[in-house]
Amino acid sequence: MAGLGRASATVAVGTMASRITGLIRNIVLTVAIGTVGARAADSFAVANQLPNSVFALISSGLLAGVIVPQIVKAVKTHDDRGSAFVSKLLTLGVLALLVVTAVAVVAAPLLVEIYAGKFTEEAKTLTLALAYWCLPQLLFYGLYALVGEVLNANRIFGPFAWSPIVNNVISISGFGVFIALFGTYKAATGWTAGMIALMGGTATLGIVVQAGILFLFWRRAGLHVRPDFHWRGIGLRHIGRLAGWTFLMVVAGQIAGAVQVNIVGAASGTDAAGATLQNAWLLFMLPFSVIVLSLGTPYYTRLSEHVAEGRTDAVTADLSSLTRTVGIFMVGVLAAMIVAAVPLARLFTTDPSEAVAFAWVLVAYLVALLPLSFQFGLQRTFYALKDTRTPFVYTLVQAAIVIATALTASALLGAGVLSREWLAVAIALGQSVANIVQFALAITLLRRKIGPLGLSGAFRGILRFLLAAIPAAVAGWGVFALFGGVDGWAVSERLLGFAGAALIGGTTLVVYAAILAVFRTPELTMAGRALRRFLPGR
């Protein structure tokens, strides 16, 4: 457990630092090209989302779901600690990434039409130009995910969590240079080749360096990797069978995401659209990344080990422990983010009215923060069991709901029932509904597969957390009202928005922790131990 705790702390601190620098990166980006009602921002959001979408799906599906269990098994059973196995997989992976990247670059006009079909012609032209600069990120995102998962499987968790910081520093510097040279831009017209190259090239350079850093840590893994094209005998048929389902998950997710981005493009240039959805999702995922991923990544390696040993009781115990630990943190964070939504939104917007529009999108995403957080453990349990078919089933259901809700929002917009200012909110809310259904289905299917999950105690604890969060949120909202609410100082400027969000959210969290302490909530001690791991010397 001590090793698991140290690994969790390493991942959490690195992830926290990378997410904070990522937050700063996106704030600087919004200063450069705007957010709500900014066509240029929506164009860059689409162009940069093309490689990002594939990376997010690959890192949580194909690589994590298929490669890690195979490497863990190779490390335990092969005399060379899996070096030959990893060499073959990396060779195959790099070739596949090269092909996918080349195809994506050639198909860039089609991809832009799919994702940005409702943009103006000028905005489409800018999106395509930026896409040619951004799509090569696919190769380096893939390398980062592939090499990172190999290191994780060998219990080297730090580099994967820390290397994005360098990417963010490069992006912040590049976007800062853009502002210094060209000022701030909201329009989709007037962009020169130099502006496009600086904006797109900065984004891609950061990903190249982020991936390259991981190769410096091979020696720590004890691996001797070389190009190896002899793939016979490494179980490609078995891996392919597992990867086939995750590939279908990629397809389902891509289709759903494309429908969302395409439909919200109708509001680009006037109201919240693609850039707003992207930045609101960044804020939404910040606590998920810092808390859930930092705790869950080391747990996943241990889950894979327990599955390999046939210890189902240990697997369910791990799942229950992870759910409790995640729950006590995420419930408090959820309450804090809801009451501080408008000041948080002000970090990404140019005036209070835009902040309110942004905040509604963020709150719509936050509806599913808890289900999405708890589902992480469930999905990784399926992956540890080498079952990628079941996650595909419930992901397909989720994708269908995402598409259905997005199309419904589009139909309501066309009928005049829904105004364009609420289109992004409706799409974000549809995403949350889909995630909630997906979580419920995942629990049901995992229970059928391995029997009772032993989560009743964990969910009773979460109910206690929710009861404590209600008065905590009321206290936070009172502080927001005391500051003047939407018309107050906490929403007047970007920096003041940060200060206001910190005070409002901080008050909420203090009251939440105090209530849990008064009622002697047992999980509070466990949370305290987790927090102490991040102190100097720990």
From TrEMBL:
GO BP terms in the entry: lipid translocation; peptidoglycan biosynthetic process; regulation of cell shape
Keyword entries, A-Z: Cell membrane, Cell shape, Membrane, Peptidoglycan synthesis, Transmembrane, Transmembrane helix
InterPro entries: Lipid_II_flippase_MurJ/MviN, MurJ
Molecular function per GO: lipid-linked peptidoglycan transporter activity
Membrane-spanning residues: 23-41, 53-72, 84-110, 130-153, 165-185, 191-218, 239-261, 281-301, 322-345, 357-378, 390-416, 422-446, 458-483, 495-519
Main location: membrane
Gene Ontology annotations for the cellular component aspect, listed alphabetically: plasma membrane
Subcellular location as annotated: Cell membrane
Coiled coil, from the record: none
Protein name: Putative membrane protein, putative virulence factor
Organism: Microbacterium oleivorans
